[in-house]
Write a structure and sequence with these properties.
This protein is an all-alpha fold. The protein has 15 helices and no strands. The N and C termini lie close together (about 10 Å).
């Protein structure tokens, strides 16, 4: 297992290097001059020159890149060109909010998708199968922002059951936090459940035709035991891949959902940084996002080895 993990972890090094090159190069190619934005409306030449010198914007691009990588090696993501705050502090303030939203959405999606996917496969061609497929297509078709607005109008405005928007940290009250995260987590979780349910159904249909499932039935094992202990475990391998990709997408920022529910998460930080040409923040955010994807993929590989020990052995 350890050699397998080590090999998978080593592949992250060239990936991260390519990410740093692409992030730096693409960011610098965007139109607009951050020095002019920071200088304000008057755009005093002396102020613009000072900003360029302070943030080394006039240095050649290779020099700027080497300086940035040297900062990264020290664990320093730099400072925001707009607020002069440390990028690491900005990310540390916003990322936990999005992580919490992503985890809750993932739990909602799994709770809906896995049972529905298994039932749809076992009851193929019945009303359960058609109903699950219809729900999955509905979840894929309904935009997140529309569903969020409808939930606010119905659940918050008409019924008054939950707060319409805002965010309360867990440290200030668990129940107050949960009340404000239920609706956005449900909005994101339904879209995730639609993808996972279809994948789980397709994977289960393939596994149920395998010889080991027929052998388990021939030995007299109960149908539910065969489905849960044998078929479902093997069917989870491709589903785990989709799950990892979806989690990475959630962590990179559910921008529209965060905007609808006024959640101060990672998505808003990304949007504001791009519009303000805040090089340091954009580079830091994209780098953290890429690192998150790499770590999630590593966890997915570990999950493969747990679900099927033969993968780790190879």
């Amino acid at each position: 297992m350890l050699p397998y993990v080590g090999r998978r972890a080593l592949t992250a090094i060239p990936t991260l290097f390519l990410v740093t090159v692409m992030v730096f190069g693409i960011q610098r190619s965007l139109p607009g001059d951050p020095a002019l934005i920071l200088a304000g409306e008057q755009q005093d030449p002396a102020v613009i020159a000072f900003i360029r010198e302070k943030y080394r914007l006039d240095d050649p691009l290779p020099v700027q890149y080497v300086a940035w990588v040297a900062q990264l090696a020290r664990g320093d993501l730099g400072r925001s060109l707009r607020t002069n705050e440390r990028v690491l502090h900005l990310i540390a303030a916003k990322l936990p909010v999005t992580i919490e939203l992503a985890v809750l959405s993932l739990l909602v999606g799994i709770a809906i998708a896995l049972p529905l996917g298994i039932l749809a496969a076992v009851r193929r061609g019945t009303a359960v199968d058609y109903g699950g497929t219809a729900l999955a297509l509905t979840g894929l078709s309904v935009p997140n922002f529309w569903l969020g607005i409808m939930l606010i109008l119905f659940v918050s405005v008409r019924l008054g059951w939950l707060p319409a928007s805002g965010y309360v940290p867990l440290s200030e009250g668990v129940w107050e936090n949960v009340k404000r995260m239920i609706m956005p987590a449900f909005v994101l979780g339904t879209g995730l459940a639609a993808v996972l349910m279809r994948q789980m159904r397709s994977s289960m249909l393939g596994v149920l035709k395998q010889d080991f499932v027929r052998t388990a039935h021939a030995k007299g094992q109960r149908g539910a035991s065969v489905v849960v202990r044998h078929a479902a475990r093997n069917a989870l391998i491709p589903v785990t891949t989709i799950l990892g990709l979806q989690l990475g997408a959630l962590l990179s920022g559910a921008v529209l959902t965060e905007q609808v529910f006024t959640i101060p998460g990672f998505g808003k930080l990304i949007v504001d940084a791009v519009f303000n040409r805040d090089y340091a923040v954009v580079q830091g955010v994209v780098l953290i996002t890429a690192t998150s994807y790499i770590l999630i993929n590593l966890l997915v590989d570990l999950a493969y080895a747990v679900l099927d020990p033969r993968i780790g052995a190879r």
